[in-house]
């Protein structure tokens, strides 16, 4: 009886705690993201919010954790879970993310839909078909994913950015979302991408998926796309060159003779210990019905091409074969030492005179002798190397000038900001002093107003008192005048007689309290009469 297969082709890279730890470290999985290997038959999520991902989209699709917002927006826009779409969709979306980074663009889901259309059938996963094979975003897409979709990851924890979650259950896109919206696409940015020759591979394919996403292709044939006319010129351009592959399946199996004196591990920062995800038992999970993945994305594919020396081939083994002790050893190189001399220590210096400084410099420069890059430089002509060096030096000079300009501009901005801050502080102190002065003036004014009110009240009281006295005086004067009139009337009414009249009654006098008559001591003495014959006072 045939043995039931329980692991896929990619299972050996993460189906044990040790392999999972290496996988997490290699692809930079954060500690707050939980990973668990699942075979395709056991891919039902265990808890709400769990995400199921094909392993191939991490190794060959450029997917990292937390998921990129463009990828989550794409899935959310079409209401699809990651298990419903073809791995090539991940290659396209994450390739667009890398193109945005390298070209300084901001392509969105609408730009992707301006280039591709979303297709599916009853027995196929959703895929992206180019509207025009001459105008595509990402190329070198494998025309088959055979044996690459059996292994899955159960992801739990902080696998997405805040408010950037995608569907975790199967859904269906709205027909309106599948239509091309020309007014929402950035045609200028798309034209830049269509004409760009970044990451051109040896098969004349620009914007190659495995160069953009830094993996070693497992497929031998790819979907059709527009070719680059001058592949040598495209690859000679430093801006078009890709970074070295970062594929867990591709380890450095040999070291060139020129790197025999360098230990690359000593130049890297210490690795943080990665915690292996615990494998939960698959029991109790109902088997998931597998959906067929289309082997061909288009009716016509490129001729089969076998890569020659672009990468080290990884021997394929059965999915149930566990990694050996040799596989556990991660990308090591020989010791880092001066060629033929003592090891380079932390107190070494390239400024030392004699042969020590140049030896240290030569040993350190050997770090740049990377296999993939040196293979690329080997394809250059002497003139091409000279042109690249001249261009690189000139770009370094121009970059220095641009940094100097930015520094000067920022220095002026800081100086202007400092001046404004000084003026602000001075003005603030002046305002505080003015407020204090105004506060004192207002206090003094309030005191003066209060004192004026008190004085006004005193004056009003005195005026009222004076008014009463004046009225009393007027009343007394009127009474005096009345009595004086009565006294005079009494005097004029006396009878005419030679006899001295009697004194009038005292109460009839105008001044009852005044004495009547003249005291004798006040009567003046009688003046002497003049003698006879003397003249008297003139009567004139």
Briefly say what this structure is.
The protein is mainly alpha-helical and 540 residues long. It has 13 helices and five strands.
- Name the strands of the widest sheet in spatial order: 1-5-2
User: Helical content, roughly?
Assistant: 25-40%
- Low-pLDDT stretches: 252-289, 293-340
Coarse structural class: mainly alpha
What global shape is seen?
Answer: elongated
What Rg is obtained from the alpha carbons, in whole angstroms? 56 Å
**Topology order in helix (H) and strand (E) letters:** HEEHHHHEEEHHHHHHHH
Percentage beta strand? 5-15%
Query: Major beta sheet, specifics?
Result: 3 strands, antiparallel
The strand count comes to: 5
Keywords:
single chain, 540 residues, mainly alpha, 3 domains, 3-stranded antiparallel β-sheet, two-stranded antiparallel ribbon, 5 strands, coiled coil
What does this structure look like?
The chain is mainly alpha-helical. The chain folds into 3 domains: 11-312, no CATH class; 337-380, no CATH class; 381-467. Helix content is 38%, strand content 6%. The chain is built from 13 helices and 5 strands. The protein has helices spanning 17-26, 56-59, 69-78, 87-103, 109-115, 175-178, 187-195, 209-212, 231-236, 325-328, 356-365, 371-378, 382-492; strands spanning 33-39, 51-54, 116-121, 124-130, 151-157. It has a 3-stranded antiparallel beta sheet. The chain has a two-stranded antiparallel ribbon with strand order 3-4. The termini are far apart.
């Amino acid at each position: 009886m045939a043995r039931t297969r329980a692991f896929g082709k990619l299972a050996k890279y993460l189906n044990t705690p040790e392999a999972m730890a290496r996988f997490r470290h290699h692809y930079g999985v954060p500690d707050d993201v939980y990973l668990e290997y699942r075979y395709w038959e056991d891919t039902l999520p265990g808890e709400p919010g769990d995400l199921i991902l094909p392993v191939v989209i991490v190794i060959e699709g450029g997917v990292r954790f937390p998921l990129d917002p463009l990828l989550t927006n794409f899935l959310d826009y079409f209401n699809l879970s990651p298990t419903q779409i073809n791995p090539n969709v991940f290659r396209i979306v994450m390739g667009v993310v890398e193109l945005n980074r390298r070209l300084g663009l901001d392509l969105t889901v609408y730009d992707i839909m301006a280039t591709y259309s979303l297709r599916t059938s009853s027995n196929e996963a959703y895929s992206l078909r180019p509207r025009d094979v001459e105008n595509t975003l990402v190329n070198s897409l494998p025309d088959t994913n055979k044996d690459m979709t059996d292994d899955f990851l159960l992801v739990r924890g902080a696998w997405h950015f805040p408010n950037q979650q995608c569907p975790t259950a199967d859904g269906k896109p709205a027909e309106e979302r599948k239509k091309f919206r020309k007014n929402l696409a950035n045609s200028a940015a798309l034209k830049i991408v269509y004409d760009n020759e970044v990451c051109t591979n040896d098969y004349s394919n620009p914007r190659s998926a495995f160069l953009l996403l830094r993996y070693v292709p497992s497929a031998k044939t790819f979907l059709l796309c527009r070719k680059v006319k001058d592949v040598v010129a495209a690859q000679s351009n430093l801006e078009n060159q890709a970074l070295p592959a970062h594929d867990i399946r591709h380890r450095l199996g040999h070291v060139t003779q020129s790197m025999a004196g360098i230990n690359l591990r000593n130049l890297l920062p210490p690795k943080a210990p990665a915690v292996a995800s615990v494998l939960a038992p698959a029991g109790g999970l109902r088997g998931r019905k597998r959906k067929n993945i289309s082997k061909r994305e288009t009716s016509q594919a490129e001729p089969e091409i076998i890569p020659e020396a672009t990468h080290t081939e990884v021997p394929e083994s059965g999915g149930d074969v566990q990694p050996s002790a040799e596989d556990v050893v991660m990308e090591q190189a020989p010791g880092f030492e001066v060629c033929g001399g003592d090891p380079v220590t932390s107190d070494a210096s390239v400024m030392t005179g004699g042969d020590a400084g140049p030896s240290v410099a030569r040993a350190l420069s050997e770090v740049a002798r990377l296999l993939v890059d040196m293979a690329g430089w080997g394809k250059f002509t002497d003139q091409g190397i000279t042109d690249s060096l001249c261009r690189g030096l000139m770009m370094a000079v121009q970059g220095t000038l641009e940094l100097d300009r930015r520094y000067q501009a920022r220095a002026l901005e800081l100086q202007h900001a400092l001046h404004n801050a000084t003026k602000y502080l001075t003005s603030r102190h002046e305002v505080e002093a003015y407020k204090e002065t105004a506060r004192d003036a207002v206090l003094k004014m309030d005191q003066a107003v209060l004192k004026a009110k008190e004085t006004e009240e005193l004056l009003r009281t005195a005026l009222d008192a004076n008014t009463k006295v004046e009225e009393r005086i007027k009343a007394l004067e009127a009474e005096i005048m009345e009595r004086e009139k009565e006294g005079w009337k009494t005097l004029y009414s006396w009878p005419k007689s030679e006899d001295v009249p009697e004194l009038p009654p005292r109460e009839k006098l105008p001044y009852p309290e005044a004495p009547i008559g003249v005291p004798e001591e006040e009567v003046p003495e009688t003046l002497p009469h003049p003698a006879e014959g003397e003249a008297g006072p003139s009567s004139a």
